[in-house]
Amino acid sequence: MRVILAEDSTLLREGLVRLLAEEGHEVLAAVGDAEQLLEAVEAHTPDVVVADVRMPPTHTDEGLRAALEIRRRRPGVGVLVLSQYVEKRYATELLTSDAGGPGTGGVGYLLKDRVVQIDEFLDALDRVGRGRTAFDPDVVRQLLTRGSRTDPLSRLTARERDVLEEMAQGHANGAIALRLSVSRSAVEKHINAIFDKLGLTGGGTTGYSRRVLAVLRYLGG
């Protein structure tokens, strides 16, 4: 894949450049702030952007804002953001930006601790590069902590919530079956039940959009 990196930590940035090169990816640019990131994307049009949420000058949400701007300007570019902490609002904003349907680049939100687990980072990058989602399991778990008294997700069984959690991370049905040690047909039945309980079985929604809408509902979007 053709990748642009945006990370203000020189050590992490250079480490990622070397890792991606070793894996056969082409690093088009490696920059240290959001302004340089936007300029690099306009100049090179990558397959995927990997960007820190917090970058100079204020170290608040410059990276996220740049990522959302890239989604607006170039919806075919995948975006994988890295964060030191779980920030629910940012995760929801990113997934909401993925509601464009087929042809829209993938999107992901990964904690930096996950980056040192190289296989998981590369798997997330691959999923985003193929137009899918890749959300950190810890992010997804924390998004489940809201109260259930008025939560439509309270209608789901424990297994259905497990399946939806895996969907929110960006796993396809076959991968979910392997991860939960169940058959693929069982996963498909659970997903159909999730769509039904969340009121997503009516006309006008494709299988792709129902999946995105279910995860959006899961994230509280």
TrEMBL record:
The modification 4-aspartylphosphate is found at residue 52. Pfam families: GerE (PF00196), Response_reg (PF00072). InterPro entries: CheY-like_superfamily, NreC/VraR/RcsB-like_REC, Sig_transdc_resp-reg_C-effctor, Sig_transdc_resp-reg_receiver, Tscrpt_reg_LuxR_C, WalR-like. Residues 149-221 form the HTH luxR-type domain. It comes from the Bacteria. SUPFAM superfamilies: C-terminal effector domain of the bipartite response regulators, CheY-like. Residues 2-127 form the Response regulatory domain. PANTHER family: TRANSCRIPTIONAL REGULATORY PROTEIN NARL-RELATED (PTHR43214:SF24), TWO-COMPONENT RESPONSE REGULATOR (PTHR43214). This is Response regulator. It comes from Streptomyces amakusaensis.
